[in-house]
Amino acid sequence: HPRRHTQETQLSEFNLTEIEAMLGSYTKVLFVRDPFQRLIFTFMQAMGSSSSFSSFVQDVLDSGQHNSSVAWKPLVSLCQPCLIQYDYVVMFGFLSQELGHLLRRVGLPTDSLLPEFTDTQVRWTYTWLSEQMFSELSLQQKKQLSHFYHWDLAAFSFSSSFLSG
């Protein structure tokens, strides 16, 4: 886009005309991850700040959507998929299949750019870990998390999410 900006420039710093021109000139890719897996990942990154996964989840729920950290804030509020027409939505856990396709579509070579992915092992590990962590939560916490991430679950196909039930 012709207007000079740096990596730190946020989209909200531009006016609507500039935003529309920029978004129209870029290939827009959204990388999404199951919200429950995002919570687990964030908890594991910050081990020690909460004594258990259940207390961490309670802290998340108590913070509310408006005060929540980017690490666990609902994707719909971060990425605005209803306002921005993304060209591609890439799901975590299917990176090896989807990234190769995406690179070919935008005309880039796939052989030299793609790292080695272990999606099958990652999916299995997160399924096992999700089962363990989900079992730590109370029924009320499970319901509150499903409500907290309601729009993410509706907007994206997280059919195997523990929060979808």
TrEMBL record:
Entries under Pfam families matching the protein: Sulfotransfer_2
Membrane topology, from the record: Single-pass type II membrane protein
Membrane-traversing stretches: none
Assigned EC number: 2.8.2.-
Single annotated GO MF: sulfotransferase activity
Keywords noted in UniProt: Carbohydrate metabolism, Glycoprotein, Golgi apparatus, Membrane, Signal-anchor, Transferase, Transmembrane, Transmembrane helix
Enzyme class: transferase
GO biological process, one term: carbohydrate biosynthetic process
Places the protein is found: Golgi apparatus membrane
GO CC annotations on file: Golgi membrane
Domain of life of the organism encoding this protein: Eukaryota
Membership in a protein family: Belongs to the sulfotransferase 2 family.
UniProt protein name: Carbohydrate sulfotransferase
UniProt organism field: Anhinga anhinga (Anhinga)
Encoding gene, per UniProt annotation: Chst9_0
